[in-house]
Design goal:
Strand content: 15-25%
Structural class: alpha/beta
Shape: elongated
CATH superfamily of the domain at 191-380: Valyl/Leucyl/Isoleucyl-tRNA synthetase, editing domain
Oligomer: single chain
CATH class of the domain at 191-380: Alpha Beta
Number of strands: 36
Helix content: 40-55%
Distance between the termini: 31 Å
Number of helices: 31
């Protein structure tokens, strides 16, 4: 039976025999299959969610290896950015960037690098345990100088094409991390359901005792208000309530004002444009030159808020764009650390979340407060540390998307996407993607080699060679330990224009630049174009669907920039791993499962079956309660080993009809499995494989041939044994990429033709053996056999008791023809002497059953001859059970004595129980025997005596 400890023995064997190295040598120089590994972040041990994708990757590389393809087998580790920085900060108990600067940037970078090296080693060991074959000593690291230099080259190209620029935009900002987030970072874990206090507050119309009711979930932005927006197409109500006059959208009136009110007028939004109002914080210095007016905005909705929107262009992306349209000032209140800037009255130098709370009391004092309520909504959070974000005006570096967009849209049409809807997802993302914000105000990451002089000159460095050429002290470039801060910060160059010394900007790059350049950096694009061309583009890349907006996008962007070519030919996407209840796995929730735990508890091949049987279009709900069915699958395969291995391999002679059928099924299976894998549908492939060996092979074919291999001699038996081994060996080869440990263990025990099943070639279909008509006939025949057995069960007549005849009533011509062709097989499998086919039948008694294409009726009258045969079979079965209890094996010979009054068929019993002698008598034996046992069959007494020779 399946035991995960066997997998450790296989791992040891692979290492000792250097099987992976021999596989590489076997395929070296043959046709290439280029696979680019999406780098795993070397930041923590692997969870079961990591293992899903890595199982797919290993499956396809093993499959292609068995097909004879030469491969690079290069694993990747993602090393830089907030992923690593935040975890290091946790280890050091840091809470802000100031802690890092006090600690020292050199020590911080070294600590980050140490963490990467530590967890890349752990993840390597875990991936090996998963069975993943990679050239682990040649893994790429995105923190390498080679990778960084390729990104410098790409960024210089962007500058030369006029796409690179510095600009001020409203960006999602993490106060804790002190960094902005790009739109594609926000798409991956950048939102959460948060509960906020939403505020209804008031703007007083100028020179009137009348008020606009405004709604917002960010009170801290009120002091930056410069306008109020209404939808010119909506109707707005003027109402008297509690002695005051208010304005709000007609559609929201009953929801917001619950008590008695009087509607004074209904006004079209377009008639309110230009109205002036007084904001609650007009007394702040930053507000002195602001003229607050109502402006039109068609995006204002009638189903949320009040239909009147507070506009603060310095605090929101949409507000900023609207502000540009109407020439509104953008008041940006926050410093990097989340404190308010000068000019904001009592809010100056106070922390944003403190101000958020205090604003409510302040509004009440100013008579500008109306009401509050709690609201739960999707709100941006830091994709890494999970802190709530603010929006603030930030000066960052961007790559324009407008010019490259049409080229990218053309390139994705050259790619095969699985599932196919992923192409549309990528099209939508590219079409709507904003300019790429590539700079981060952080430390451990790609250093942006941008030198900006006070005279306005901007110099972009594209290589180490160029840096050395422009450096004031070239020797410092030669002595750089690595291309990271703080060491790279010490390299100064001279301005081309004014000749001043210039220092590199302090920002580092977006981490998706790191991973996006790997089809170039790992293939030595800058130093060996011939090698790069030999392996580019990747034949296949495999990652989660979320990577469409992340890694797949960055790969495409960089490759389109450098070569105007897609970096991959095929993209395979899968969904998320959830817990058994369908909830997202999180360490904080306690429902995450670590890889090591699962591998030890259930074993890797069972994990691989869970992953590979899952439809990748849907989330995988992973848990230990789903493992039993997969364990049963592997145990079925091991049970087949026990059965098949008892027979020594034979040569093929004349084929019976059941042999032709199973060989046809096998060769059709080879075509289907190969086709499913080529079409990137591995779940269909493994399901078909399991169905074949559990149903066609184990349940049907072995049942067909059991008597041939156990009780017959000669060609008929030899052929059946030959087919048994041929199918089982082929199955092991087909299953090897899916469950590499179990198949290896069985292969070495049963066949051992090569040093490993993974050194075997992928099976090829022999189309001459495919008989589709025969398979169709057998489908009918199996249905008939199943129905006859169901009728026996209904009539409580065991299969060991022969029946004289069965009548099959059907109008289906196909069934009639199939029964005629396989009459002998049906009779043998159902233990019936004669089959009668008709179109009319009496189905009134319990000997009849209905099946899909008609009815079946048994003749249950037992003649004396049939009765003798039935008793003989029952006695045979009982003796075999006793032999088994005695620990005997098939080849053990016995002397047998049966005490009974019932007539039996001596020859049949003797041949099946392997007896040298057999005596049947109604008297006790004169000699003594080792084994004695009494029992009854259908009320008749029997006593068995035998001795093992």
């Amino acid at each position: 039976m399946y035991a995960s400890r066997d997998e450790l023995e296989v791992l040891e064997y692979w290492g000792k025999k250097q099987i992976f190295k021999k596989l590489q040598e076997k395929n070296k120089g043959k046709k290439k299959f280029s696979f680019i590994d999406g780098p795993i972040t070397a930041n923590n041990p692997m969870g079961v969610h990591h293992a899903w994708g890595r199982t797919y990757k290993d499956l396809y590389q093993r499959f292609k290896a068995m097909q004879g393809y030469d491969q690079r087998y290069q694993n990747g580790f993602d090393c830089q950015g907030l992923w690593v920085e935040v975890e290091v900060e946790k280890d050091l108990n840091f809470n802000s960037k100031k802690d890092i600067e006090r600690f020292g940037l050199e020590k911080f970078s070294n600590t980050c690098k140490e963490r990467v090296n530590k967890f890349s080693k752990i993840q390597t060991e875990q991936s090996i345990r998963l069975g993943q074959w990679m050239d682990w000593d040649n893994s790429y690291y995105t923190m390498s100088d080679n990778n960084i230099e390729h990104i410098w080259y790409f960024l210089k190209k962007c500058k030369e094409m006029g796409w690179l620029y510095k600009g001020s935009k409203i960006m999602p900002w993490c106060i804790r991390c002190g960094s902005s987030s790009s739109k594609h970072e926000m798409s991956d874990g950048g939102y959460a359901d948060l509960t906020h206090t939403s505020v209804y507050f008031l703007f007083k119309l100028k020179n009137k005792d009348e008020y606009l009711i405004i709604w917002s979930t960010t009170p801290w932005t009120f002091s930056s208000n410069v306008a109020a927006a209404i939808n010119p197409e909506l109707n707005y109500s003027q109402v008297r309530y509690n002695g005051k006059i208010y304005y709000l959208a007609e559609s929201m009136l009953k929801r917001i004002i619950h008590d008695d009110y009087l509607v004074l007028d209904t006004i079209k939004g377009s008639n309110m444009i230009g109205w002036e109002y007084e904001a609650p914080y007009d007394d702040f210095d930053v507000q002195k030159d602001v003229n607050h007016k109502i402006i039109p905005w068609e995006e204002v909705g009638a189903d949320i808020g009040t239909g009147i929107v507070h506009i603060a262009p310095g605090c929101g992306e949409e507000d900023f764009e609207l502000g540009k349209k109407y020439g509104l000032p953008a008041l940006s209140p926050l410093n990097e650390d989340g404190t308010f800037r000068d000019g904001y009255g009592w809010q100056t130098n106070r922390f944003v979340w403190d101000v958020n709370k205090q604003v409510l009391d302040d509004l009440k004092k100013k008579n500008a407060f109306f009401s509050i309520e709690q609201i739960t909504h999707r709100y941006p959070i830091c994709w890494r540390c999970k802190e709530e974000l603010v929006f603030r005006m930030v000066s960052e570096w961007f790559i324009s998307a407008d010019q490259i967009r049409p080229m990218m849209l053309m390139n994705i049409k050259k790619v095969k996407w699985e599932p196919d809807y992923c192409q549309k997802l990528m099209e939508d993302w590219i079409t709507n993607m904003e300019d790429w914000c590539i700079s981060r105000k952080r430390y451990w990451g790609l250093p942006l080699m941008f030198y900006v002089c006070s005279c306005g000159e901007i110099i972009i460095i594209g290589s180490k060679k160029e840096l050395r050429k422009l450096a004031i002290d070239p020797k410092k470039v030669d002595e750089l330990p690595e291309f990271h801060r703080p060491w790279i910060d010490e390299i100064y160059i001279k301005c081309h224009q004014c000749k001043r010394e210039i220092k590199r900007i302090p920002e580092v790059g977006d981490c998706w630049l790191d991973a996006g350049v790997v089809p170039y950096s790992t293939l030595n694009y800058l130093t060996d174009k011939r090698y790069w061309k030999a392996w580019f583009p990747a034949n296949l890349v495999i990652e989660m669907r979320a990577q469409i907006r992340l890694w797949f996008y960055s790969l495409l962007f960089i490759s389109t920039t450098l070569e105007n070519k897609p970096p991959y030919r095929e993209v395979f996407c899968y969904e998320e791993v959830r817990d058994e209840n369908g909830d997202a796995m999180h360490k904080s929730k306690g429902n995450a499962i670590w890889f090591n735990e699962a591998a030890e508890k259930i074993g890797v091949d069972i994990m691989r079956l869970i992953y590979l049987q899952q439809n990748p279009r849907f989330n995988l709900c992973f848990g230990y309660n789903i493992t039993e069915e997969r364990k049963k699958t592997i145990n079925n395969l091991l049970n087949l080993e026990t059965y098949v291995s008892q027979f020594k391999e034979e040569t093929q002679k004349k084929l019976n009809i059941e042999d032709k059928w199973i060989l046809s099924r096998l060769n059709n299976l080879i075509i289907k499995i190969t086709d499913d894998l080529e079409k990137l549908q591995p779940n269909q492939a493994i399901i078909s494989l399991i169905d074949f060996f559990t149903i066609d092979f184990s349940k049907d074919y072995i049942k067909f041939i059991r008597d041939r291999v156990q009780n017959e001699i000669g060609e008929n038996k030899e052929t059946a044994i030959y087919i048994l081994h041929k199918i089982y060996l082929t199955l092991l080869k087909l299953l090897a990429p899916f469950i590499p440990f179990t198949t290896e263990k069985i292969y070495l025990r049963v066949y051992n033709q090569k040093e490993s099943v993974h050194l075997e070639d992928w099976p090829k279909s022999d189309k001459k053996l495919i008989k589709n008509e025969l398979e169709g006939d057998m489908e009918y025949v199996l249905l008939v056999i199943e129905s006859i057995l169901a009728a026996r069960n209904k009539a409580e007549l065991g299969l060991r008791w022969p029946l004289g005849s069965v009548t099959i009533s059907t109008k289906n011509i196909g069934i009639k023809k199939s029964i005629k062709k396989m009459n002998k097989l049906i009779k043998k499998q159902t233990n019936i002497k004669k089959i009668i086919v008709t179109e009319e039948i009496d189905i009134s008694d319990k000997t009849s059953v209905e099946f899909k294409h008609g009815y079946i009726k048994l003749n249950t009258n037992l003649t004396k001859k049939l009765e003798v045969e039935g008793f003989s079979r029952e006695i045979t079965r009982k003796i075999q059970d006793i032999r088994k209890k005695q620990g005997m094996i098939r080849g053990d010979v016995i002397d047998l004595y049966i005490e009974t009054n019932q007539k039996l068929i001596e020859k049949e019993i003797s041949s099946k129980v392997n007896s040298r002698t057999i005596q049947i008598s109604n008297k006790k034996p004169e000699q003594s025997f080792v084994v004695e046992e009494n029992f009854k069959v259908k009320g008749k007494d029997f006593k068995i005596y035998f001795t093992k020779l």
